[in-house]
Fold this sequence. Notes:
- The complex is a heterodimer.
- In chain A, helix 2 (22-32) packs across helix 3 (36-52), helix 4 crosses helix 8 (137-144) and helix 6 packs across helix 9.
- Chain A is built from 9 helices and no strands.
- By secondary structure, chain A is mainly alpha-helical.
- Chain B is rod-shaped.
- Chain B is α+β, with helices and mostly antiparallel strands.
- Helices cover 27% and strands 33% of the residues of chain B.
- In chain B, a hairpin with a 5-residue loop joins strand 6 (147-156) and strand 7 (162-168).
- Chain B has helices at 3-18, 25-36, 51-73, 115-119; strands spanning 85-88, 95-98, 103-107, 125-132, 137-144, 147-156, 162-168, 180-187, 190-196, 202-209.
- Chains A and B meet through helix 1, helix 2, helix 3, helix 6 and helix 9 of A and helix 1 and helix 2 of B.
Amino acid sequence: MQSEDFTYDKQSAFMELYEPIHDRFVRFCQVRLHNSEEVHDLVNETLLRAYENFEKLRNKDAFLYYLFGIATRILNSQYRKKKFWGAYDATKNAQIADPCWDPSQKADVHLLYKALDELPSRQREALILFEISGFSIKEIQQIQDSKASAVKARLVRGRKKLAEILSEKK
Amino acid sequence: MDSQDSTCVDRLFEEARKVPVSVSVPEVKATLSHAAKPSKSSIFPFPTYSSQWQWGIAASIILLVGFVAVFFRGTPPPPANLHPVKLTENSSPFVLLDTYRGEEISYWDTSQTPYPLLEAGIENIRCFQTYMEDTACYLTVALELGQPDLIHFALADLTGAIVSQLLVGGRQYQSDSSYNFDLCQLQSGKYDLLIQTDQGDKLRKQIVLN
């Protein structure tokens, strides 16, 4: 009974911090991984890891840094593992049903995702967090453990480079 | 970056913000509730969802146990094709134990006393015989009662003819060119029997006489 109470308390404490940023976090994962199935896996794995070690997080103000740090480490590890995976099958990928959004918008958004992939990782992360997920500069400071000026510089440079990449693609 | 590029980037970001979120909060809650329940199938006393870690620890334990076992054994384990043989005398008839396979493979049988032993005047012996697939021969080990140092080893072919034999205790009766015995006493009652076939193959049997 006591352990059930503890579990409930832990879950509610976790959700209290997580729920306000849920949409923004999932959106970040969606941009980083274009495939909806992989997004599901990334979100679940990140949350499970974060939840498992939640007691170790002494300063709850660092939750954003903690959560996005886990997600980034998983992404990096997946990227490393993918080097040893089989070849990407575009036909099979196209057959996977994607209930997410209107197909007319899909091409534009896909183009943006591809262009974002070409940016340096910190710039890309800052741009996704600010422009798509909707985090404030102060929150991105926490996530990236950087100064506000550094975040702003990444955003400006990232936007500039993104525009160049997109104009090249056109 | 001109204003046209900037507008284009803004428009794309606007589109990306409209993409609906593919994971809902209730789904997250369900996942966390599931994670809170300890897995009954786990054999490890750790929290779940760290199977790589668990298997890492399990593999380390297995390696450590293996290392300790090999280290304290003193001698390296025999190759897989060599079956150490253990002979025990816990009851009559005697039982030959194949410790490698952990099963009884032969029994003492006084009626199978090799005739060369009888010819040599050695009586009052107990022996066991076992068929060795690797030499297609019968190995006979005979103990002379009351004289534990005298142990007779003989190889007989399928017709029962002795092809090679050796008597521990200083007396060698017969040796055949087909098979050569080489016996090394590791310790009291424990022998390493090397058999070299006519093809040059070497077989090793470890025999323990209790």
